[in-house]
Each structure stands twice: as C-alpha cells, then as structure tokens.
Amino acid sequence: xxxxxxxxxxxxxxxxxxxxxxxxxxxxxxxxxxxxxxxxxxxxxxxxxxxxxxxxxxxxxxxxxxxxxxxxxxxxxxxxxxxxxxxxxxxxxxxxxxxxxxxxxxxxxxxxxxxxxxxxxxxxxxxxxxxxxxxxxxxxxxxxxxxxxxxxxxxxxxxxxxxxxxxxxxxxxxxxxxxxxxxxxxxxxxxxxxxxxxxxxxxxxxxxxxxxxxxxxxxxxxxxxxxxxxxxxxxxxxxxxxxxxxxxxxxxxxxxxxx
Length: 259
Description:
It is built from eleven helices and twelve strands. The protein is α/β, with parallel strands linked by helices.
C-alpha cells in the first residue's frame, strides 16, 4: 500500500479531486416554499436529491395561501410546492411562475385523527354524534386540507353543528399540533402526518372518503424569481422520478394522475 505522501498516492488524490470538482462547481441551493403537510417527506427527499446532485434544498413550510402571498410580495423562492393546483396556477397567470412548469407531484388524502386510540372507529361515530369538545382544522381560506375538511363536513351535514367547536390552525401542521397537544380531541390532517410506511403512528383515525371532497392534487411550479433555474429544474424533475413516486406512496400520498 503506498504511503500517504508517495507519488502514487498523490496522483490518486489528484484524480479523485478532479472527479469531484465538476460536481462541487455546479452544486447550488434550491429555495423551496412547501405546503406544511409535505414538509416532512420533502426533508427526506431533499437528502436524497443532495446525494444524487450535490444541490441543497432549503425549505420554508407554511400554509399554501400564506406562502403564495409571500411569493407575491417578493419572497426569495425558486420553487413552490403547494397543497393544491389553484395557487400555482394563479401565480403562473400573474407571471410569477414559469409557464409550462406546473405539474401535480402528489395527491393527498384527508384523515380525521385523534391522539385517543379509542375515540375513532371505522364510521367516525364520535364525529357524527358530536362526542368531542374541540375539532381542529386548517383555515379553509389558507389551506387546501382545511377546505377539504369543510367540504367533507358540509356533505356529511355536520358543518353547522361542529362550527362552534372548531379550532382553526394557520396550516394543517398547526391543526395536527392542536390535537397532539391536547387542545382538541380531533383534527383533520393529511394522512402522511399520522402514518409511517402505512402504519398509524398512534391514536385512532378515519380516512375521509374521497367522494366527500374535491381531490387534493398538490402541484409544484418553477418561480420566475428562481436564482438558479438549472438546479431548480433538476429538483422538479427529481420529484417526478419513479423512485420519488415510490417513496411518496410509502409516506401516505397517492401517485399523481394527469397534469
């Protein structure tokens, strides 16, 4: 084995450095505004993306509505991963997102969750009978999951009855926190927030039938403010890769269909 300072070893190190330099030279930072429900999966995806490309993804989670407002006010983001299709489409129409870059990266599922393992059954009887003091939802005006919850409760004929018991969070993550900390007995959240590889993290849950609300088609888009479009586009392509879609299935999302 050559010594650390032998000519042979120095040549080996030089070759390794030359191989690594192109990757280091092209490494960039992708600034992603991401819907709160997708923040945890994105953290895992960002790590994989970094290993593959050298690019780093810096995330700012929040409600879709609030993030869209920040983008309109000039917040420095490169890509927007919303919890619906409407917000990215509106930004595209306003010239704040690159036309033709928008696509659905995941389809979310709405779940009613309780930290109490005995509270919810397969028919969500506790919800239907009003056996709870507080119900947390994301603000329907800001968060698509909150709007889906409102649609579901309306179709079930329960909206008027439960409205006095509602605790509104700015995002679906905050709605989850209200229940997780005991400030609400129930919360409408994303399935991905309360499951690990398809298994419930704890408590009890009821998956809301998809017929009770509009599909939660979550769209991504490249923003015109993108600092490094090549890196941002590489990340958006990564989101559409088969391996990425397989991982999303494991984290509680359904594969996207159509644009």
